[in-house]
């Protein structure tokens, strides 16, 4: 962890060498994210509650999901863009380093997500504040949301790592990321109850993004089921992470380089 933090800090300092570029990029990224959420909020406001979910409850789903996404992207953006390492042979350089390959990969490229993360945290904070004001949730929702964010980030990382690991057999995996990351993230911005049963099953049992925000929110925000759902989400995160690490290790044994 000390080596990981040293390398991440070095990448952060490098990205901030051009200060105005860093500030402008952060502001523009936050603006784009705000515009995306405002478009969603306008539609929701026009319809009011959807399937029993208010604007603030759906905003909670959005804020929690995007917080997990940008923490994951900030910590391991190269995992989410692994295809170039396989196609161009960049992975060979990581194999030569006296570090675990996954650690080298996670620290080889850092994405600046400050603006997006601040925006998602702001949306999440405002929605929790409104729900607190209305008496719908208690202050226990804050630590419970922090727990959900931790387990959700682990689930998102596990799915991203599993997708990257499939690259050792498929090589070209950018389109697979569209399915396991982009499409599922877009779907989980809304309550899963909006979707047909077969899609709900995929988002809970196959690509378990439903455990990032929807399942915890059923207890934290809606007061349904019980606290055991948070424990279940943590269990799903642990199982997903273990399975993805095993798949990654197996994939590494199949890597044959590019011949360059």
TrEMBL record:
<dbReference type="InterPro" id="IPR010390">
    <property type="entry name" value="ABC-2_transporter-like"/>
</dbReference>
<protein>
    <submittedName>
        <fullName>ABC transporter permease</fullName>
    </submittedName>
</protein>
<dbReference type="Pfam" id="PF06182">
    <property type="entry name" value="ABC2_membrane_6"/>
</dbReference>
<keyword id="KW-1133">Transmembrane helix</keyword>
<feature type="transmembrane region" description="Helical">
    <location>
        <begin position="227"/>
        <end position="248"/>
    </location>
</feature>
<feature type="transmembrane region" description="Helical">
    <location>
        <begin position="53"/>
        <end position="72"/>
    </location>
</feature>
<feature type="transmembrane region" description="Helical">
    <location>
        <begin position="144"/>
        <end position="169"/>
    </location>
</feature>
<feature type="transmembrane region" description="Helical">
    <location>
        <begin position="113"/>
        <end position="132"/>
    </location>
</feature>
<keyword id="KW-0812">Transmembrane</keyword>
<feature type="transmembrane region" description="Helical">
    <location>
        <begin position="21"/>
        <end position="47"/>
    </location>
</feature>
<keyword id="KW-0472">Membrane</keyword>
């Amino acid at each position: 962890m000390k080596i990981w933090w040293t390398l991440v800090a070095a990448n952060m300092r490098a990205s901030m060498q051009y200060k105005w570029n860093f500030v402008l990029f952060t502001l523009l990224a936050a603006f784009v994210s705000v515009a995306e959420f405002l478009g969603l909020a306008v539609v929701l406001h026009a319809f009011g509650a959807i399937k029993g979910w208010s604007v603030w409850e759906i905003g909670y789903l959005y804020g929690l999901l995007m917080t997990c996404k940008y923490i994951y992207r900030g910590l391991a953006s190269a995992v989410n863009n692994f295809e170039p390492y396989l196609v161009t042979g960049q992975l060979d350089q990581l194999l030569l380093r006296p570090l675990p390959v996954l650690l080298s990969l996670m620290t080889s490229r850092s994405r600046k997500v400050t603006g997006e993360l601040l925006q998602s945290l702001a949306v999440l904070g405002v929605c929790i504040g409104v729900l607190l004001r209305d008496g719908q949730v208690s202050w226990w929702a804050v630590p419970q949301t922090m727990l959900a964010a931790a387990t959700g980030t682990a689930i998102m990382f596990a799915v991203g790592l599993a997708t990257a690991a499939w690259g050792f057999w498929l090589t070209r995996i950018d389109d697979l990321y569209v399915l396991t990351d982009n499409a599922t993230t877009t779907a989980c911005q809304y309550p899963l109850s909006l979707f047909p049963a077969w899609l709900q099953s995929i988002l809970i049992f196959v690509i378990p993004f439903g455990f990032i925000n929807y399942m915890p929110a059923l207890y934290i925000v809606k007061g349904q089921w019980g606290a055991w759902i948070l424990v279940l989400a943590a269990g799903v995160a642990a199982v997903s992470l273990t399975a993805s690490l095993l798949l990654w290790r197996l994939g590494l044994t199949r890597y044959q380089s590019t011949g360059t």
